[in-house]
Recover the amino acids of this structure.
């Protein structure tokens, strides 16, 4: 794909702005290291560590078996993102533009807006969690204040929340390169601190550590089903954890110079990175069991038990960097593009990011006192299950229906009869495929009888979306692969 082929000849202001336009190869500066750090920041967050550590304790499996399941999930996700990332490496387009090929130039706003709502919600929640690290730091240095609270947050907590909120705005306002530099710094820093903590725990636990890994985890939880079912449930849970980034991975790969660098970054950042990080989580979790008599899955709790001011300061800065990192990767960049796609002539990437930040401020500020109390996370998790079919639709459309060829000019055209106009800008067959598959996905969240499939809900929903879409598109095969339907 030559750079001159990425120039859009006829600009439609309802579909085009500079942030959505194909990024030319000469303007791309990301390599394997940047993609590796996208995954480093996604995996090495407080929530990512707590999830990995909890899996060692929840399913009643030997610690090594749990680690194998987590690594397998990393391999699966690597293949999934190689598929969604490839077209954006080739054409330099973000997710909301890519999805126009299958959903239609107007229909693309449906997956984009659903993804934006999920991103904005979790951006607010993660901003609050990042602020708890700053609260830990301020409290350690200056004390906790007078103890008075507003909306469940102390004065120190409010100051911390506003600091984190403004810090994130300052980063994204300087553009994607500044975000890249922050991720490249935050990912390795978190690893250094986690490795140091692992070494300390391993040294203090001594000879009791390895027996704890092999035996205590197996006896720590009652397993209701078979070991194979537990193994597969862990795989499904970890794949679902990465699901949001899997769908819109093109938002990142459009900045990558070559497909080879993308694949190398995914290999280093997923199976190998997950294996090493899971090993760290396994050792530290076993160590806390030996040292404190109970397994601690939250790094903040471990630091609190150690009760060392220097460690508290280093840990607070690390937790802050880790949580801001995942927030920028999973919850800021996607809605910024998705909102820009809604009204390109009025909303740029920066304006979309500002809207994300403003709405997310209220989500984060009300998290403790209101949102966490009324079951809203369940609603957002349901939305997460709903978007799963879009993965299958996007992949099947690009590889099996469009045969890895997209017409860049047509992706930015809303003329009736253009390749991706379909019916008034909507591909009704894609909507039907999405609706049928989403009905199943949401059932795994809402219907008690299907609760056992919850861990596999995302993968099954994605598979059904692709299968339904392929069947519907084959039933009305157009004269050309990209002609209107």
């Amino acid at each position: 794909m030559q750079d001159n082929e990425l120039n859009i000849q006829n600009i439609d202001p309802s579909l085009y702005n500079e942030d959505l336009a194909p990024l030319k190869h000469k303007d791309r500066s990301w390599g394997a290291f940047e993609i590796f750090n996208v995954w480093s920041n996604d995996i090495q967050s407080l929530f990512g560590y707590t999830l990995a550590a909890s899996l060692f304790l929840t399913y009643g499996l030997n610690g090594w078996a749990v680690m194998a399941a987590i690594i397998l999930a990393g391999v699966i996700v690597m293949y999934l993102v190689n598929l969604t990332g490839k077209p954006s490496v080739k054409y330099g387009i973000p997710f909301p533009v890519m999805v126009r090929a299958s959903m239609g130039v107007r229909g693309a706003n449906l997956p984009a807006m659903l993804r934006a709502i999920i991103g904005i919600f979790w951006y607010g929640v993660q901003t609050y969690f990042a602020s708890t690290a700053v609260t830990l730091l301020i409290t350690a240095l200056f004390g906790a204040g007078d103890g008075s609270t507003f909306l469940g947050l102390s004065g120190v907590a409010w100051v911390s929340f506003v600091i984190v909120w403004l810090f994130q705005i300052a980063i994204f306002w300087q553009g994607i390169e500044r975000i890249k530099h922050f991720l490249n710094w935050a990912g390795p820093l978190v690893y250094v601190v986690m490795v140091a903590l692992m070494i300390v725990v391993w040294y203090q636990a001594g000879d009791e550590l390895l027996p704890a890994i092999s035996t205590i985890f197996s006896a720590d939880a009652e397993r209701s089903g078979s070991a194979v079912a537990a193994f597969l449930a862990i795989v499904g849970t970890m794949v679902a954890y990465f699901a949001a980034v899997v769908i819109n991975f093109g938002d990142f790969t459009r900045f990558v110079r070559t497909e080879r660098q993308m694949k190398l970054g995914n290999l280093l950042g997923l199976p190998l990175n997950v294996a090493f990080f899971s090993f760290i989580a396994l050792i530290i979790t076993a160590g806390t069991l030996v040292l404190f008599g109970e397994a601690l899955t939250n790094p903040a709790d471990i630091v609190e038990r150690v009760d060392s001011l220097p460690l508290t300061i280093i840990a607070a800065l690390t937790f802050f960097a880790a949580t801001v990192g995942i927030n920028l990767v999973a919850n800021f960049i996607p809605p910024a593009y998705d909102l820009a796609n809604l009204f390109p002539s009025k909303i740029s990437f920066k304006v979309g990011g500002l809207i994300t930040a403003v709405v997310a401020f209220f989500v984060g500020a009300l998290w403790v006192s209101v949102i966490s109390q009324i079951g809203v996370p369940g609603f957002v998790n349901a939305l997460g299950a709903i978007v799963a079919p879009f993965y299958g639709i996007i992949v099947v459309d690009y590889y099996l229906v469009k045969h890895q060829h997209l017409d860049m000019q047509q992706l930015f055209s809303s003329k009736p009869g253009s390749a991706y106009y379909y019916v008034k800008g909507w591909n009704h067959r894609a909507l039907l495929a999405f609706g049928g598959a989403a009905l199943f996905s949401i059932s795994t969240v809402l219907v008690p009888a299907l609760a056992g499939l919850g861990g596999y809900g995302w993968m099954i929903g994605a598979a059904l979306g692709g299968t339904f879409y392929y069947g519907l598109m084959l039933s009305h095969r157009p004269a050309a692969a990209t002609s209107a339907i």
